[in-house]
Amino acid sequence: MASDGRRRISLGDFRHDSLSETSSTNSECLARARAGDGGNLWVTAERQTGGRGRRGRLWVSERGNLYASLLLIDPAPMERLGSLPLAVAVAVHQAIRRVLPPGAEPLEVKWPNDILIGRKKTCGILVEGEGLPDGRYALIVGIGINISEMPDNPLYPVTCLRQQGAAASPEELFAHLFAAMADVLDIWDQGRGVGEITARWREIACGVGEKITVNLPDRSISGQFAGIDDNGLLMLDTGAGRIMSIAAGDVFFG
């Protein structure tokens, strides 16, 4: 129990089911939620046959990398869920940092939650949610980390942990992720700890002060990346003293 009276989150609160192969760990978590699972469940797979990224993009999922999804049920009031992707990015960054050797290229987070090593993407995070018939809300955090395989990606430069000198197996990296996520979700505290999460995110952020282009569903906007606000929204300086707040989009540097 924390000093403020709230119940602390610990490693023992989470379960883990390891699969050899599945269509998608996110889809598996969602199916279990629909079947009544109580949440705090990790599902990992050695291979996915139908992995997906943001905006329905294919996520190539051959053996050798880490494919993991975390099912959370009613993790926070809806108005506080917007900061969860930042918390997830902080946890994933913490886990990868544990296995990178000294001298590796800089490990950073690109808004909101892409993990970059030397400005090259090594991890994708997909957060999905669905209201369940019984009134509960299922939220699934899908995480794919390039360990030994490095799929071609025409949108971004990519890398993998092996290329950066890390020797960790998917199982070892997941053990670090399992611990880091419990720690960070405890700090996030159902969205009440957003101040601490945004402070940690800013410490590992990539490209603050640089020129960026943000691709939105209907247009692209360029400006200077002015950081994030206290709720995790991207702040884009479009010139003439105008700051635009952006809740979702794909960021490109330069």
Features:
single chain; about 250 residues; alpha+beta; BirA Bifunctional Protein, domain 2; SH3 type barrels; 2 domains; seven-stranded mixed sheet; 4 helices; biotin--[biotin carboxyl-carrier protein] ligase activity; biotin; ligase
Word description of this protein:
The protein has 254 residues and is of the alpha+beta class. It folds into two domains: 11-204, BirA Bifunctional Protein, domain 2; 210-253, SH3 type barrels (Roll), CATH 2.30.30. 22% of the residues lie in helices and 32% in strands. The protein is built from four helices and twelve strands. The strands form two sheets. A seven-stranded mixed sheet has the order 1-2-3-7-6-5-4, with helices on both faces. The longest helix has 19 residues, at 170-188. It is globular. The model has no long low-confidence stretch (mean pLDDT 90).
Give a brief outline of the structure.
Its EC number is 6.3.4.15. The protein has 2 domains: 11-204, 2-Layer Sandwich (BirA Bifunctional Protein, domain 2); 210-253, SH3 type barrels.
Q: Provide the CATH top-level class of the largest domain.
A: Alpha Beta
Q: Give the overall form.
A: globular
What is the CATH superfamily label of the largest domain?
Bira Bifunctional Protein, Domain 2
Radius of gyration: 18 Å
Which strand order do you get reading across the main beta sheet?
A: 1-2-3-7-6-5-4
Number of strands: 12
Instruction: Give the topology string: H per helix, E per strand.
Output: EHEEHEEEEHHEEEEE
Low-confidence stretches: none
